[in-house]
Amino acid sequence: MTMPIANLRFLVVDDHEFQRAMLKRMLQSLGAQHIYEAADGIEALDILRREDRCFDIILSDLEMPEMDGMEFIRHLGELTTGVSVILISALEPSLIASVETMTQAYGINLLGAMEKPILMPQLEALISLHKPCQTKQKQSCVAQEFTLKEIIDGLRSNEFEAFFQPKCELATGHITGAEALARWRHPEKGIIPPAAFIKPMEDNGLIDDLTWIMLRKAVAFRPMWGDISRKAGTLSVNLSTQSLGEVDMAGRIIEIVHTEKLEPEQIILEVTESAAATDVGKVLENLSRLRMRGFGLSIDDYGTGYSSMQQLMRIAFTELKIDRSFVADAIKHESARVILESSLNMARKLKMKTVAEGVETQPDWDLLCELGCECAQGYFIAKPMEADAFADWIQDWERAV
């Protein structure tokens, strides 16, 4: 729910008095009644630290003396105020795009960036994106922490489950499969997302346990799909880097799949770009053996690592999964679109299936169709859901397409 602009508190940060006055007039013409000004980042931080100055939206220039906009944004992220930010600059678009990414990395709710001269419709459109306390809510969710003992108890009590997010064929709309994603069904706190437990598991040598739990539960559920969808055949499961280094990993996976009477061709094993960074021999032996048996291999979050090309040469991948950051930014930034298009072209030449993660809007979907991506996954199609709900969801979706 958006808040009426008259109720919002604005802070305009710009070292040019004329620019501040112009922004103030534009905000007033849109109905804003609570507008404060700062000539630089130092003054802005001083205003923000006062107890009686809680702001909803900050409009900040990037080029300022003493403390520029980038340093101000870093300090703003440390304050964790829950404020939204609109960037203003006359700098080149590629540099503004970098600062946008930096702003998001600091955990700030970025509404967007405007190039000078500022246009009223653009300003109004960005303000309309503000949602009260959006950033605070997100931070409180991610900040939820559990002790190592709680996590171990959860593993022993079989509280970790597989949720399923569908993958959709862009050309036809039909479901081609789903990815199994880990969720913790906490007895007191409900469904816990992976951000709260994946890193502690990795840091304490528990991620391997989760990998095998997820594989067994996901594979056991796959036969329940039946023939609901003519193409809903593949189940994607993530493999941890630790598991890939185990000499018997391939054998264990083959045994689990055989026990559930599934064909290896129905399973896609997703690995990150850094999968073969260590224990190269063991990793390549495991993945080569699985590929030889008919399992699909997907390079996950493609584009976020430092050795993408090398990994494509080392491992016989069948699927390239493009990271959500390129999908989300491709609409706004030419550089992201070029990388996305180049990745899709490369995958086609290597005869790899392409899947785009993080598809959240109709424009995302339309652009991927235009660029020739084969499959999509993201909230625009469906959020991850429990096993029973997934089977029902497929039926409803397939009737609609």
From TrEMBL:
SMART domains: EAL, REC
GO molecular function: cyclic-guanylate-specific phosphodiesterase activity
Xref: SUPFAM superfamilies: CheY-like, EAL domain-like
PROSITE patterns in UniProt: EAL, RESPONSE_REGULATORY
Boundaries of every EAL domain copy: 144-398
Residue numbers carrying 4-aspartylphosphate: D61
Response regulatory domain: residues covered: 9-131
UniProt entry keywords in alphabetical sequence: Phosphoprotein
Superkingdom per UniProt: Bacteria
Biological process according to GO: phosphorelay signal transduction system
CDD domains membership: EAL (cd01948)
PANTHER family assigned to the protein according to its UniProt record, in alphabetical order: CYCLIC DI-GMP PHOSPHODIESTERASE PDED-RELATED, CYCLIC DI-GMP PHOSPHODIESTERASE PDEF
Name of the featured protein: EAL domain-containing protein
Organism: Nitrosospira lacus
